Amino acid sequence: RPGAVTVPVEEEKDRILPVISRLADRSAPIAVDTRKADVAAAAIDAGADVVNDVTGLRSPEMRRVVAEHDVPVVLMHSIDAPVDPNRTVTYDDVVEDVVRDLTERILLAERAGIDREQIVVDPGLGFGKAPEESFEILSRIGEFGGLGCPVLVGHSHKSMFDLVDCGADERLAPTVATTTLAADRDVDVVRVHDVA
Fold first, then answer.
1. Which residues are catalytic?
2. Domain annotation covers residue 47
3. In total, how many domains does the chain have?
4. What is the mean pLDDT, run by run of 10 residues, along the chain of 196 residues?
5. pTM to 2 decimal places
């Protein structure tokens, strides 16, 4: 979230590890959303199956943890994490620029020993992108398939839907519509909040 406060490592562990431990006996895969290597390692040890890193594996320590544990990783494109709402990012072509940045992140991951088959890419809708840019990414989402990794879209209830006059409490319909669009365009994974 824009302007999110960073949670200390031990506090983050205290919040998530008991939940992961309780869920680990279920058959559903568990993804831990963290940008901290120590938290990711502890979460994997507690039963998490996937690491979702909003920094795109910027940290060498996070790359090492993912490689050593040989778990799938969601590699998200972001300029800042957490997002700085006062920073304006200028792209020459948002899709080409994000694909190029993700390509570099994938290569760094591979150099760290992470198999490309373990990498899922997320173009990071709303993370350092104006609503118009996020919609441009969605309209050209097929271009991310050239990265050779599954593509994830996290669009659920995003503020980008303000562009189509949907306030915070009116974002379910555009989320469902965007999920349908993503599925139609062969997106591999959608991250949503409203699961039925």
1. 158, 191
2. yes
3. 1
4. 79 97 92 96 98 94 98 90 68 96 97 98 87 89 96 68 61 65 81 71
5. 0.87
